[in-house]
Amino acid sequence: MRFRSLKTTCFPGLFVTLYCFSSYHIRIKSIYLSIYLSIYLSVCMEYSLLYVRKSIYLSIYLSHQKLQYTFSFQYFLNVYIFLYISLIFIFLRFPHLFPFLPRRQKRNFSTIRYPWGSSSSSSSSSSFFFLFLPPSPPPPPPPSSSSSSSSSSSSSSSSSSSSSNCALISSPALSLSLSISLSIYLSIY
Questions:
Q1: Residue 126 CA to chain centroid, in angstroms?
Q2: 103 in helix, strand or coil?
Q3: Which of 59, 69, 84, 142 has the fewest CB neighbours in a 10 Å radius?
Q4: CA distance linking residue 90 with residue 76, whole number of Å
Q5: What is the pLDDT of residues 52-103, one digit of tens each?
Q6: Domain limits, the chain
Q7: C-alpha torsion 170→171→177→179, nearest 10
Q8: The pLDDT value given to residue 96
Q9: Which residue spans within the chain are E strands per DSSP?
């Protein structure tokens, strides 16, 4: 509960502070917008990555327009950004008003298809992450009734360790750092 309150207070407050005290240059504000959306939507709220990519692409596109921004266009863009962020805040407080926005489903790493085909099928993205893991030995022959409990405990421990490794590999921290680095790099050059 405390972490949920931190998500709904600290992150928006930090973004609004950076947004208000930044320069009026559109490139600076678009950097803040892309970083904020990538952190808040991808990591905290577990949105579908499609919406996060669209938001980042929009901010990068607005930051690299080679047009002479007039006062009216700058005012319109500020109003648009504030309305977009306020819509996110409304969704945080009343998520039932937006049933059409899908959330990212949690991957079930215990149902990965192994090379010997001993477990059930899974998504292609989950099996992709297993390519980075070291190859595991083939399963032993069917044990007797006396050693069934020990083998089941060892298999559960190995599956838990493999799931923890996959959770570490498939965490959104990598995509978050890549999106932030890309937005900063494109804003400089």
A1: 15
A2: strand
A3: 142
A4: 21
A5: 556 556 655 655 554 444 445 555 555 666 666 666 666 666 777 767 665 5
A6: 2-103+172-188, 109-138+154-169
A7: 70
A8: 72
A9: none
